[in-house]
Design a protein that fits this description.
This protein is an alpha/beta fold and about 210 residues long. About 30% of the residues lie in helices and about 25% in strands. It contains seven helices and eight strands, in the order E-H-H-E-H-H-H-E-E-H-E-H-E-E-E. A hairpin with a 5-residue loop joins strand 7 and strand 8. The protein starts with a strand and ends in a 12-residue tail after the last strand.
Amino acid sequence: MKLTTMTQITVDGVVQGNGHATDDERRDGFERDGWAMGVFDDETGAFITQTFRRADAFLFGRRTYEIFADTWGSNEQMRAHPIGVALNKAPKYVASNTITDPHWAGTTVLSGDLAAAVGELKAQPGGELQVHGSGALVRWLLEHELVDELTLLIVPVVLGQGTRLFPEAGLDVALDLVDSRADTKGVTIQVYRPAGRPHYHPARPA
């Protein structure tokens, strides 16, 4: 399977609180949640739904898994939505050393050697193993060269606070642009494929 990621992100790189922030997210003083709610036009909404529907399996980090399990997995109205149907039908995997008894049906916990476990999933026949949200997991997967395609839904807002997808210091990755478009509300969809490390130009001679 191809491992793909989809992330809703602000212009200044924040991924925290795109919907309603959890109590856990608010502990650090974060108060600007809900910045991605209602900002997508119908075409982008359909694109997001179609993306979920083509998944063969889903992989989550612990926080995103718990949010999804308590919404798409538990709310009957959300379960009936095409995204909810896709999530509840497909196998789900959560990378966690603390979850031992997941309450969302169809979930397998991945712990221990995560790189080996994800590698085994990718080796299975099928189309896509999708990662939604899960910023820390996305960074880890990129670091271990396990991401095949990265989709960013860039919302035209500068938040000024919150957890960013990429920290100030971290792994450097070159990206090849596969697709780029903007919707009628100013959201841009950027699809990239990781392309190894960037090439840097040496400083000019004095």
